Amino acid sequence: MPFEITSGKIDKAKKVVFYGPEGVGKSTFASHFPDPLFIDTEGSTTELDVKRYPKPSSWQMLIQEVQEVIQLKNCKTLVIDTADWAEKLCTEFICSKFGKSGVEDFGYGNGYTYIAEEWGRFLNLLQDVIDVANINVVLTAHAIIRKFEQPNEMGAYDRYELKLGKKTTGQTAPITKEWADMVLFANYKIFSIQADEKGKKHKAQGGQRVMYTTHHPCWDAKNRFGLPEELPLDYSAIAYIFGTQSNSQEDIKQSKPVTDQVIANEIEDNKPISELGSEIPPIIEASNETVIPVHETNLPKGLTDLMNQNLVTEEEIKKAVALRGYYPENTPIENYDPDFINGVLIGAWPSVLKMIEEEIREF
Fold this sequence. Notes:
Shape: globular
Strand content: 15-25%
Number of domains: 2
Low-confidence stretches: 245-294
Oligomer: single chain
Structural class: alpha/beta
CATH class of the largest domain: Alpha Beta
CATH architecture of the largest domain: 3-Layer(aba) Sandwich
Number of helices: 10
Mean pLDDT: 79
Order of helices and strands: EHEEHEHHEEHEEEEHEEHHHH
CATH topology of the largest domain: Rossmann fold
């Protein structure tokens, strides 16, 4: 049977990488995309009136939050803010998985290869956000300045790049740029003006924020939409690509208030926490991250967050661990080896959760 041939443009969600120096306004810019939902990996959106998931304390928690977006389709734009802080979680996960204290312990660049492979799987998951849920994905990132020298040319110059894969053997930045439909670089535009009558002295002036959309020797950028090389740092300049105007705060719909009783009823009905709305009452709101207080523990935060998110108790963890013969059931989790907690309970959380749901809760 022959393959079907199609033609014309395909209207689908977009993949955007937006990076720049600290303080240039990356999070604010991302907040104007259509109906954004933030996964705030570094806790930098506390002053923005946006929807956000709890700050992920582990790589597995970040993966679960993205998977929930695909399942629930609870936004029009998923914002990972920032990608370089997400990469830190990825690195910690890989090191725990192989029992290493740092990525350099792998030797010969192997650690960076493992990280790139895991990051590639993460980008594939984000591609599912596009293809399955038809939700835009925005990755914000910090910029880093590197000294760059091209072969067969005189001199070197500073170049802005994504702050991903800090070592030359790191591969996360190239595959992230290849994955994106649009890579935008934001910076402050500085003008040099004459400071004396003879024109021998000049001074820097300006500071207007702009974004660059095409490749330049001094920065990475690209787009597939025929944008001008330089635009003001204003979402309205690219809004037409997403079929929207700027997502101003006045346009954000107010979600229903969530009371303690509503939470209790929803949990009893086994509804996901993310469906409870955005106005979480003070009793379960702590700084910039929302945590459902299933239990208070002295366990590592990465494990506690995963337990809270999936309503898993310490007793269920201990039963699962005992069934596999790791520790007796009466052993406190605090007494588990830290490498076991990080490498097995956190690192292999999907398997742990599946075991609890299929072998523990059914009895």
